[in-house]
Write a structure and sequence with these properties.
By secondary structure, this protein is of the alpha/beta class. The relative contact order is 0.11. It is globular, with a radius of gyration of 20 Å. Helix content is about 50%, strand content about 15%.
């Protein structure tokens, strides 16, 4: 019988703009969201050129806008952004950039207690709409609770101008939802872990939408960006519904985190998760060939060589993967893979 005494809070984006020249609406979005007078743009040197300067120009007439240029999502950079926001008495943040700028803004907005708008210049993973962030500390990437963007402005022209590799990586990250959901269902059957049907449906829709359009997602086509953005936003929202990254992060993400530990900054997060999903789908007894073929069609890596890792590094990451998140039960179980089993799954799927 349903428990009608349960309570749950879900934090969603209120406004989403997607399309050509969507960035032109940034001032009206700030107005409609009833932001205060002072704002801080969080961006990087390259992303400032790509879109940050335009955001400054579009908002400076009606708002007191400052800009901070920052780097990767590290504890040190997070503290710098928070300090700048407090010194400038910022009542809102505008995150202009890729995943790291958006993640930093999520965490800073959460810690300070102010809203932020996600303005991606690339979509290498599904974090542009979620309330989860990844921060590097001690050489490891840690997933933490943050806050979802109050608004999202995804300009297809801006994103199309970014290297196609980022878009392909974002597709791979969303396709990897399929193995994450398989792990969640596995934990539900074995451990009785609670599962959200609405989050599951949304995360699966996102993955299947990318899969079904894989043959028409191509470099240089703004229409491809349009096709990818809606599933990426849906994938992020599924995490808001679940209250965790469970619908989009499982054993394939643990494999990716292990690769980060072994040889940091070698491949993009989404690329690693895509290759991980191929192998984890084989372990789950599913159709790994379908995932591999979709990734190939999009132009995302499907092998160790394409990722930039050796055979030995892939096997080591598979063995290590179970230790990356001890709180998350997946197809890897409590004991993980032995070296022989890791090599077998990597060879069977053609990853090595």
């Amino acid at each position: 019988m349903a428990d009608f005494t349960k309570k749950k809070s879900m934090d969603f984006p209120r406004t989403v703009w997607i399309g050509h020249d969507a960035i032109d609406n940034v001032a009206s979005v700030c107005r409609d969201l009833h932001f205060g007078k002072n704002g801080l743009i969080v961006t990087g040197s390259d992303t400032h050129k790509a879109a940050g300067k335009k955001v400054e120009d579009l908002t400076s007439e009606k708002y007191d806008i400052d800009t901070i240029l920052t780097g990767n999502a590290t504890v040190e950079n997070l503290e710098k952004v928070k300090t700048a926001a407090r010194e400038n008495k910022a009542s809102f943040l505008l995150a202009v950039g890729g995943g790291s700028k958006i993640d930093i803004s999520k965490m800073a907005a959460s810690d300070i207690g102010i809203p932020f708008v996600s303005i991606p210049t690339s979509v290498a993973h599904d974090g542009i709409a979620s309330d989860r962030a990844s921060i590097k500390s001690g050489g490891m990437s840690n997933s933490v609770n943050a806050v979802s963007p109050t608004g999202i402005i995804a300009d297809t022209k801006v994103i199309n101008d970014a290297p196609y590799r980022y878009l392909a990586s974002g597709c791979a990250d969303v396709i990897a939802n399929l193995t994450a959901l398989g792990d969640w269902e596995f934990a539900n059957r074995i451990l009785g872990e609670e599962i959200s049907s609405s989050a599951t449906i949304l995360a699966k829709y996102a993955a299947e939408e990318i899969m079904s359009n894989c043959k028409i997602i191509r470099p240089g086509l703004e229409e491809s960006v349009w096709l990818v953005l809606k599933p990426i936003v849906a994938s992020g929202v599924s995490m808001c519904i679940a209250g965790s990254s469970r619908p989009t992060s499982g054993s394939e993400h643990m494999f990716s985190h292990a690769l980060d530990f072994i040889k940091p900054d070698t491949a993009l997060h989404g690329e690693q998760c895509g290759v991980g999903a191929i192998m984890m789908m084989e372990l789950q007894g599913g159709n790994w060939v379908r995932i591999r073929d979709a990734l190939r069609s999009i132009g995302a890596p499907t092998t160790a060589k394409e990722l930039g890792f050796t055979k030995e590094e892939i096997i080591k990451a598979l063995v290590m993967a179970k230790d990356m998140r001890k709180d998350r039960f997946t197809i890897l179980g409590d004991r993980g893979l032995r070296e022989e089993a890791a090599e077998k799954v990597a060879r069977v799927t053609g990853v090595i």
